[in-house]
Amino acid sequence: MGTPLQHPRARGGKRHTLLVRVAHWINMFAFFGLLASGIGILVAFPELHWGETGYPGKTPWVSLGMEANFDHTAWGRNVHFLSAWALVANGLVYLLSGLIGGHFRTRLLPTRHQLSRDHIVEDIRQHLRFRTPPGGHGPDYNLLQKIAYLVVILILFPLMILTGLTMSPGVTATFPELFTLFGGRQSARTIHFIAASLLVLFVLIHVWQVILTGAAEQIRAMITGGSSATEAPE
Amino acid sequence: MTTTPNRRIFLSGLVAAGGVSLAGCRSETYLPPDYGSLFGVSDALSMGAQRLILQRQPLAREFAPSLISRGFPAIGTTLPEDDAYLRDLKTGFATWSLPVEGLVRRPLRLSLAVLKAMPARTQVTAHSCERGWTAIGQWTGVPLAHVLRLAGLRPEARYIVFDSVDGWYESLDLFDALHPQTILAHGMNGAPLPVQHGAPVRLRVERHLGYKSIKFINRIRVVESMAGISSGKGSLAAEFGYSWYAGI
């Protein structure tokens, strides 16, 4: 495949290391736990505000246009925090190993070649044409794909955690700086919602890409690791 | 799928990690009474983590009175359907009194007049409801620590239980009960505490979500363990599935 998007396969023959695979699936379960329970928590106050305060009766920034529903707060909070602890513990292991083991450097950091102007233009052009190279050829991610992963890992998830902690009256008693950082508890709640929406958008595109590039093979590779010996038909 | 065992191993690892960090600590300040379930794992982690970062007992943020919210939703019971309560309401709680009993050296019965004559603390704080909204209010009341000092805690005292006239109950361990911002509030926004906000006296616990700040208090009990109180989960909220520890 002589396209400019292809790069030499990373080491080991496995497309995904065991740690990445385990972390991926734990993260998936935790994320869906957080998403479902997050919606359950949100609908008890289906409006968004900026600043310190926001309560029924105060004009919201955005109203979700539905009746408040209090039936999902209790289980929602329980599932949310259980999933959050799983996500944070899993994410810390993934982050540390990715930094120390070189996963981020070798797989997610754009190469010098990818950052050349010609390549950037070519990559964007390929994306705009919705031209997807076939999957099963290793985790040599293209530039926009790398940027999407890095934004999710280094910006959106940390933002979710920090805005989440800003809603905790216990945590903010010790770290009132969080209020300053986000402009108040209701601002943090609104940013939490926006970042969550972006993560959902990422997941939708991610799953769409997995389907386009061969869902069975991609999912198998994320479970077994995949190996160079059993694939690469050419 | 190979994912399920991985997840199980991970979860039991979490439990083990929680156990290690708890060793050697006084369990009542790190473990909630309602920890005996899957969600108890995350409740215990949240409470343990917060107790570690709150060890220096910081105050929740306080605001200038100019920031008091114009509206302040009243949720839960807004007028108890209790004959004795309604009679007290008519007389301005003139004959109402609050018993403080249990593991104390000097059981008390405090009238509203006596409570109002005690040293008071006024604080303007953000009320964070578990439903998601936030409003700022000003609260005036007697620090619970002052009342407990007057009653004299026995050495085995661990939890303070608050009963409400509407049948609700809540509890605090001493870590939160003795915190300076934990007050028995009899005033709100410069006026006597309105009925819908829990008159004559409600609890304010500023480092927890709103449901911990129980309204319409009519009895305070000091106990060693929550085991003998109702289901033993520490609060009626916990019996409805809300975690006893509400700092998150």
Task: Produce the secondary structure layout.
The complex is a heterodimer of chains A (234) and B (248).
Chain A: H1 18-42, E1 47-48, E2 62-63, H2 73-101, H3 103-108, H4 117-128, H5 143-166, H6 169-174, H7 177-182, H8 185-212, H9 215-224
Antiparallel strand pairs in A: 1-2
Helix pairs in contact in A: 1-2, 5-8, 8-9
Chain B: H1 3-22, H2 38-53, H3 83-90, E1 97-102, E2 108-111, H4 112-117, E3 121-128, E4 134-143, H5 144-151, E5 159-164, E6 169-173, H6 174-177, E7 183-188, E8 191-192, E9 202-204, E10 217-223, H7 236-239
Parallel strand pairs in B: 1-10
Antiparallel strand pairs in B: 1-2, 3-4, 4-7, 5-6, 5-10, 7-8, 7-9
- The separation of the N and C termini of chain A measures 9 Å
Major sheet of chain A: order of its strands? 1-2
Using the alpha-carbon principal axes, give the shape of chain A: globular
H-E string of chain A: HEEHHHHHHHH
Average pLDDT reading of chain A: 89
The greatest interface here is: A-B, 48 and 49 residues
Number of strands of chain A: 2
CATH 4th-level superfamily of chain A: Transmembrane di-heme cytochromes, Chain C
Which spans of chain B have pLDDT < 50 for at least 5 consecutive residues? Answer: 1-25
**Class from helix and strand fractions of chain B:** alpha+beta
Which shape of chain B, going by the Cα principal axes? globular
The SSE string of chain B, one letter per element, is HHHEEHEEHEEHEEEEH
Overall pLDDT score of chain B: 90
Gyration radius of chain A, rounded: 20 Å
Q: Percent of residues of chain A in helical segments?
A: 55-70%
User: Can you tell me the CATH architecture of chain B?
Assistant: Alpha-Beta Complex
- What is the subunit organization of this protein? heterodimer
Largest sheet descriptor of chain B: 5 strands, mixed
Quote the distance from N terminus to C terminus of chain B: 33 Å
Membrane topology (chain A): Multi-pass membrane protein
Keywords (chain A): Cell membrane, Membrane, Transmembrane, Transmembrane helix
Pfam family, one (chain A): Ni_hydr_CYTB
Subcellular location (chain A): Cell membrane
